[in-house]
Specification:
The protein contains twelve helices and 19 strands. With 389 residues, the chain is an alpha/beta fold. α5 packs across α6 and α8 runs parallel beside α10. Bound molecules: magnesium ion.
Length: 389
């Protein structure tokens, strides 16, 4: 179904606390306003106007980088003036279906959009998602400096609904309704304007996911809702390097003085290599050699922290996170124990994890095998990762 859309992102959002206006803040690594724009474009919006506050042009350009099909309009002092500015910039013909959506409701999905567009196609003058009020409603005195507000009445909740967005209208109907709206009043949604003009508005199924980010604590709730179901994954890795001439080894990102060094194309940090393979293994991304071929001169002598950071970035880019890691170093010498805490600290720093989620252990093989004969050193690692879906 063909439709156009206006996203209202011009609010200063003072109730959401200090810092950047809420529409430009990050939600699960993505600016709040970008969630809505991506959802509307992927649901088939032919054109989207994002109404922003004066001076927010750079923030918007950064938030929407790489997306096509949108343009900006500058909003007014009130929500209704911002919507009017958006409609003017939309350049719609009167029969076009226009969706008006609050940027502060980032978790809109195609099904919400399809429902309001379909209701309009069925002949309504306007459609919006709404949730039936489930809590008992009280009327009370204003919040006082001293004492608690006093209840003055219990309000009948039957037939009451919480209005959400996106709200759908024919462009001509919405424009005419706004033209007739009294300048002294500020509507809190667009359906109210079309209702006042005599339009027939219908409700489509609302969704807790369409919550409006208003207060600071709303962000934590939206983060949870945006995350959906997370699945725990496990990956494991193993690596070994041969000892050769030198005066120290790199292990788990820490340089340890020794009478020999580990030989390898990079810095031969077997601990980081095993851990990188564990992270890659947890997300089915092959092994360290696939991402950093030993034949590539760029990785000659490279700090292996680069490899670990790359694996962690692959996880983060898919909306996942590392839960905990556990590395075991296997050698007779150098003695690991004096350096263990430094290694844990370095891994915690590289993976941005609290210290209690990072373990480094060491063992010998009681003089048996290649590690026992001190021909080389081995490492194994296990990582637990949470991924969406
Ligand atoms: Mg290696």
């Amino acid at each position: 179904m063909d439709f156009l859309a206006v996203i209202v992102a011009a609010g200063s959002g003072q109730r959401a606390g200090p810092g950047a206006a809420k529409q430009w803040r990050s939600l699960r690594g993505k600016p709040v306003a970008r969630w809505s724009l991506e959802a509307l474009l992927s649901a088939g919006a032919r054109r989207v106007v994002v109404v922003i506050a004066p001076g927010d042009e750079a923030a918007a350009a950064e938030a929407f980088a790489g997306l096509d099909g949108w343009r900006l309009a500058t909003g007014g002092a009130t929500r209704d003036r911002s919507v009017a500015a958006g409609l003017a910039a939309l350049d719609a013909s009167s029969e076009d279906i226009v969706l008006v959506h609050d940027a502060a409701r980032p978790l809109v999905e195609t099904r919400h959009i399809d429902a309001v567009v379909a209701a309009l196609a069925d002949g309504a003058d306007g459609a919006l998602p709404a949730l039936a009020v489930a809590d008992t409603l009280k009327r009370a005195t204003a919040w006082a400096d001293v004492g608690n507000p006093a209840v003055t009445a219990t309000v009948e909740r039957a037939g009451l609904w919480r209005a959400q967005t996106p709200q759908a209208f024919r462009a001509g109907v919405l424009a005419e309704a706004y033209a007739a709206w009294p300048a002294a009043e500020s509507p809190t949604d667009d359906a109210a304007v079309v209702e006042r003009a005599g339009g027939r508005i219908v409700l489509t199924p609302g969704d807790p996911r369409l919550m409006k980010l208003t207060y600071p604590e709303d962000f934590a709730m939206a983060e949870l809702l945006a995350g959906g179901v997370m699945t725990t994954r496990i990956g494991q890795g193993f690596d070994a390097h041969r000892f050769g001439p030198g005066d120290g080894v790199w292990l788990c990102g820490v340089r340890i003085p020794h009478d020999r060094s580990l030989i390898g194309h990079s810095d031969a940090d077997a601990g980081l290599h095993a851990l990188t393979d564990a992270l890659l293994g947890a997300i089915g991304e092959g092994d360290i050699g696939d991402h950093f071929p030993p034949s590539d001169p760029r990785w000659k002598g490279a700090a292996s922290s680069v490899f670990l950071a790359h694996a962690a970035e692959l996880i983060a880019a898919r909306g996942g996170r590392v839960v905990n890691v556990d590395v075991t170093l296997i050698c007779e010498r150098p003695k690991i124990k004096p350096h263990r805490e430094a290694m844990r600290g370095r891994l915690a720093e590289l993976l941005a994890l609290p210290l209690d989620r990072v373990s480094v252990k060491a063992t010998t093989t009681e003089a048996m095998g290649f590690t026992g004969r001190e021909e080389g050193l081995a490492a194994q690692a296990v990582a637990s990762v949470e991924m969406p879906g």
